[in-house]
């Protein structure tokens, strides 16, 4: 029941919590955002509409959508002083390091939306984070490649604006291909929320202390960075490149099964899904579409990925462990085809998940019975004993 701690020797014990936002059935491979199947949203909706749904619980009518989109659009610029903040980082800093630092510092620039007891300030903070994370991610990317920052534009949609801020340069106009914007928008939708995963639980736990929303989201970004979590999309593409060709797949399958080898197939397995990750299915279809659009045929990385999936899904070990491709298995192939370096894969996951983190944070912080999170433990250390002077040890 809600609030009951369940102890698990793997120290993966989780504090169950009640939520109305996202539902996952790991055995059925089902994912619902506020009751709507991810497959239907990916096909018929768009990211900002999914943001409205996650934040408010219902799909918007036309007027509500226009108001929401106008408000988000008008919050996409960051405080000009924040540009200097980027310049404190080395150019080769991982964009995730920059994002953790810059988002964590946002409370120093947006004082009027840090009081979590004020519903109005909570609303403003939510809009600012949804609106500004793509700008901050794009700035982290531009800074890492030594190009000037590109300001957001109010005449572009959310995903197109992000691509424009990443790929435009002052020297010449950059026209965002609509199909790429659609593919990016779909990637954002697929990553928007995912129940009580590690980074969302981090945001909830940080928020339960009353910390400001910017600090909580920075904590979520830090947790997402790990290769077992959101960092898997970068690690997966690097693994596919390392495999290089389909004839080397058996070697890596053997390593993944070897308990003495720490190697794991990145982009495979999940704490909850013991069937196909429904997001991976949509992502796989999108990969084919984007590569076709870009005229990239016989992409070796995609060929290795598809053959690896086919072999693994027939392998007794993976079948017995119920290991299937997850959301990170195909996403990197699409992002690489779009022109992003692997270091930008997890930042894109982070900016997409920000709305989920905020929705979950708002649900937690607005619960009047809410208390600070305080996981317990099963103590297996030394029993009580008296101090021993150093010469008697
Ligand atoms: C995300 O929680 C979420 O919702 C996360 C996420 C989200 O949207 O927020 O879905 C995003 O983080 C997806 C996961 C991305 N990570 C990776 O792709 C990294 C590779 N995957 C693994 O590290 C692993 O599958 C985890 C971390 C995802 C889950 O780890 P667990 O909890 O150990 O996996 P499990 O309990 O399901 O494992 C069952 C068995 C174990 O062996 P035994 O201890 O039973 O002998 O399968 C093994 C694992 O060792 N195993 C793998 C494996 N994943 C699990 N063996 C080889 N390759 C793998 N990828």
From TrEMBL:
Catalysed conversion reaction: oxaloacetate + acetyl-CoA + H2O = citrate + CoA + H(+)
GO CC field: cytoplasm
Entries under InterPro entries matching the protein: Citrate_synth-like_lrg_a-sub, Citrate_synth-like_sm_a-sub, Citrate_synthase, Citrate_synthase_AS, Citrate_synthase_bac-typ, Citrate_synthase_sf, Citrate_synthase_typ-I
PROSITE patterns: CITRATE_SYNTHASE
GO biological process: tricarboxylic acid cycle
Gene3D superfamilies associated with the record: 2.20.28.60, Citrate Synthase, domain 1, Cytochrome P450-Terp, domain 2
Pfam (any one): Citrate_synt
Active-site residues per Swiss-Prot or TrEMBL entry: 270, 328
Keyword annotations from UniProtKB, A to Z: Acyltransferase, Transferase, Tricarboxylic acid cycle
Pathway membership, UniProt: Carbohydrate metabolism; tricarboxylic acid cycle; isocitrate from oxaloacetate: step 1/2
Homology family: Belongs to the citrate synthase family.
Name the UniProt record assigns to this protein: Citrate synthase
Gene assigned in the entry: gltA
